[in-house]
Design brief:
The chain has 292 residues and is α/β, with parallel strands linked by helices. It folds into two domains: 65 residues; 210 residues, Rossmann fold. 41% of the residues lie in helices and 19% in strands. A seven-stranded mixed sheet has the order 5-4-3-6-7-9-8, with helices on both faces. A two-stranded antiparallel sheet has the order 1-2. Helix 1 packs antiparallel against helix 2 and helix 6 crosses helix 7.
Length: 292
C-alpha cells in the first residue's frame, strides 16, 4: 500500500464514521506522518510504500480510530509547545488552547520582578504534565510543583518529565480531593505563579460530548460539578496564601465561563487583570492577582 492510498483510505473510513472532512484530512495526515516518519508524507512521498511493520501499525490504528479512540491515544503521543508527550487514558490529551496558558505564564513572569531569575511555580491538576514540563523546559532556573489527585496521571507526568529531561526540577505531589492547596501547604510555598487547567465541563454535559472525549478521556479530569465551576470556587478560596505579594494565578476556562469565574474570584478578594482569547475568539485564560 502506498502512502497516498493509505491517506485516501483513512479519510474514507473516517468520513463514513461521520467525521468532519477537515478533521478526517488532518487525522489522515498526522497518522501517516507519524507512521512514515516523514512530515506531510502524503505530499512529499505519495508513492512511497508502507513497510510490512508500518502497514501493521496503520491497520491497527484504523481499527482504533473507527471505534472513536482519539488519535493521540492511538499514536500514544502528542506535541505540545514543541515538546513530545506520551498520551494515554491516564490523563487528558494536551490541547492547543492550553498552550496559550503556557505562553501567558512566560509573558507574565518577567514582569513580576526584573531582578528575580528563579521562579517558584505551582501547576494544579497537572494531568499529563504538559504545562509544568513546558514551563520547566522554557525556564531552566524555575522550581515547579505539580499536583494531581490521580496517581495514574502523576505517573504519566513523571514519565513525560523524564523523557523531556526536566524531572530533576519538578516536584510531583499527590493531591487531595476538593482541596487544591493541600499538597503545597507543607512546603510553606510563596509562589510567583499558580497555573491550572481544572475540570470545567458541567456534569450533565459530559454524556453529550463527542465520543472520543466521552468514552476515552478520564471523566474525573472533565467533571467540573453541576455548573462546571466547582473547581474555580475551590481554587479562588484555597490558594490565596500560596502566592507572593506580586504573584499571579492563571486558569484555563471553558466557553462562556469568564464572567462567572471572574465574579467567583472577585468575591474572594482577587483582582482579575485581564483575559486571553483563544484561536476561536473564546475567552480562554483568566489572569488574577490578590488585592493586598
Amino acid at each position: 500500500m502506498t502512502i497516498a492510498q493509505a491517506h485516501a483510505q483513512t479519510q474514507s473510513i473516517l468520513s463514513a464514521a461521520n467525521c468532519e472532512k477537515k478533521e478526517a484530512q488532518a487525522t489522515a495526515r498526522i497518522l501517516l506522518d507519524e507512521i512514515s516518519g516523514v512530515a506531510h508524507a502524503h505530499l512529499m512521498r505519495p508513492e512511497g510504500v508502507l513497510s510490512p511493520a508500518q502497514k501493521l501499525r496503520f491497520d491497527a490504528a484504523l481499527i482504533e480510530l473507527q471505534k472513536g479512540r482519539p488519535l493521540a491515544y492511538v499514536l500514544a503521543t502528542r506535541e505540545f509547545c514543541g515538546l513530545r508527550f506520551t498520551c494515554d487514558e491516564r490523563a487528558l490529551i494536551p490541547r492547543p488552547e492550553t498552550e496559550l496558558l503556557v505562553e501567558a505564564a512566560l509573558e507574565k513572569l518577567p514582569s513580576q520582578n526584573s531582578l528575580l531569575k528563579t521562579y517558584t511555580i505551582a501547576d494544579l491538576g497537572t494531568g499529563s504534565g504538559c504545562i509544568a514540563i513546558s514551563l520547566a523546559h522554557a525556564l531552566p532556573d524555575a522550581e515547579i510543583y505539580a499536583t494531581d489527585i490521580s496517581p495514574a496521571a502523576l505517573e504519566l507526568a513523571r514519565e513525560n518529565a523524564v523523557a523531556n529531561g526536566v524531572d530533576a526540577r519538578i516536584h510531583f505531589l499527590s493531591g487531595i480531593e476538593n482541596d487544591w492547596a493541600a499538597p503545597l501547604r507543607e512546603y510553606s510555598l510563596p509562589c510567583d505563579l499558580i497555573v491550572s487547567n481544572p475540570p470545567y465541563i458541567p456534569r450533565e454535559e459530559i454524556e453529550i460530548l463527542p465520543c472520543e472525549i466521552r468514552d476515552y478521556e478520564p471523566h474525573r479530569a472533565l467533571d467540573g460539578g453541576s455548573d462546571g465551576l466547582d473547581c474555580y470556587r475551590q481554587i479562588a478560596s484555597q490558594c490565596q496564601t500560596l502566592l507572593k505579594p506580586d504573584g499571579a494565578l492563571m486558569c484555563e476556562l471553558g466557553a462562556e465561563q469568564f464572567s462567572d469565574v471572574r465574579a467567583i474570584f472577585e468575591r474572594q478578594n482577587w483582582r482579575v487583570e485581564n483575559l486571553i482569547l483563544d484561536f476561536a475568539g473564546i475567552e480562554r485564560i483568566l489572569v488574577a492577582q490578590l488585592n493586598r
